[in-house]
Design goal:
Strand 2 and strand 3 form a beta hairpin. The chain has a four-stranded mixed beta sheet with strand order 3-2-1-4. It is α+β, with helices and mostly antiparallel strands and 82 residues long.
Length: 82
């Protein structure tokens, strides 16, 4: 979690899915990797976006157990919630 000063020069990307239609679904964060937005772009645009932002690639998230609050929009498109 965030400790110290918030550094807006740091950019983070976590790929959530590379789709068969050529699009990449990913999380993008500025300053703090745990506060991210979810984006979808064609592969070429994604690569350009990452280069332009000098993004640091993060490891994929792994589900660590049931938690009603730990979900993303990507999760919501691939599973049914209660």
């Amino acid at each position: 979690m965030f400790e110290g000063r918030f550094d807006v020069t740091k950019r983070f990307v976590r790929v959530t899915e590379k789709r068969e239609d050529g699009f990449v679904e990913f999380e993008f964060a500025v300053g703090e990797p745990d506060m991210a937005v979810e984006l979808v772009m064609p592969q070429a645009a994604f690569e350009s976006f990452c280069t332009t932002n000098q993004a640091v690639f993060l490891e994929p998230r792994f589900n660590v157990g049931p938690n009603d609050w730990a979900w993303t929009l990507h999760d919501a498109t691939h599973q049914r919630f209660r």
